[in-house]
Amino acid sequence: METSSLPQEFADHRTKELPAYGHQEPFRWIADVTVMEAFESEVLDLPDFYFTGDDYRYRFEPEAKQRFLDLLREQFNSGASYKGRASKWDTIIELKAVELGRYLAGQSNEINFSQPYLEFRRTDSLERRRRILALSQANARKLGIGKGTLHYLRRNARDASYFEIYHKVATRLGAETGVSVHS
Prior knowledge:
Number of helices: 8
Number of domains: 2
Distance between the termini: 70 Å
Strand content: 5-15%
Structural class: mainly alpha
Helix content: 55-70%
Radius of gyration: 23 Å
Strand order of the largest sheet: 1-2
């Protein structure tokens, strides 16, 4: 009587993959943030997707997929401070994979996926939007914010989409709004 080793082969295969799947979880936020930014910045919109009834999935239009991948690539190329130096996220993930390998091989007694920690910085908070809309032209002038810049700020503060405020302007607004500014 011949026995099949298929269940054992499947179990071995899944066990070998688990560290790789577990390693991606601490960095899943990069894709999640990219999806949110893609919709907020209107890089993606609902018409960019279509439904296929045969497998009940939504699919990207090819052009939308490329726009999203460009945004995701930009996110992975953004940096963070890790071990005292600026590194890109793809480099940090590679370093964490090495740390995981050393831990699994017994060459290290600890592993820390909480560093570098996640830090979201938005310049378009609801409070800042309200204060921009309430800022008078005279007060803006006192802060060194020109008429054109104030117009741009007000227009974007009224819109629901995410918008950037340049550091120099954000610093000037910080004095008026009482909102802390991160560089």
